[in-house]
Amino acid sequence: MREFLVEITTSPPEGTSEAEVAERRAAEAVRARELAATGRLARLWRPVGESRSIGIWRAEDEDDLHGNVLGTLPLRPWMNLTVTPLEPHPNDPGRS
Questions:
Q1: Which of 62, 63, 79, 84 has the most beta carbons within 10 angstroms of its beta carbon?
Q2: Which of 75, 76, 37, 77 has its CA nearest to residue 58?
Q3: Are 70 and 2 in contact (CB under 8 A)?
Q4: Structure pTM?
Q5: Span 47-81, pLDDT tens digits
């Protein structure tokens, strides 16, 4: 599996009800736990004072990432994504 740094900004469309936003956010939390359990979502952060998320996601390739991982998120239609493929650095202190 390859790793990807993914920056996500979620913006519900104008006029979306608070109930729909809450329902999708709850479903998103469930799906994120499922993806974490399968190793597809490795880490997730929110920068202080911002509404965007930054995460380390795992997939076979970018098609797999978009189709079978990020594409399964309930909030995906409202997301703007920046995806950066990652590779190991020879000086990474966490490298085994």
A1: 79
A2: 37
A3: no
A4: 0.91
A5: 999 989 999 999 999 999 999 999 999 999 999 99
Position 95 scores a pLDDT of: 75
Read off the pLDDT of residues 76-89 as tens digits, 9 standing for 90 and up: 999 999 999 999 99
Is residue 62, in this structure, part of any structural domain at all? yes
Q: Which domain holds residue 54?
A: 2-86
93/89 Cα distance (integer angstroms): 9
Phi/psi of residue 28, nearest 5 degrees: -65, -40
| Strand residue runs (E) in 46-89 | 53-59, 79-86
Q: What total number of domains does the chain contain?
A: 1
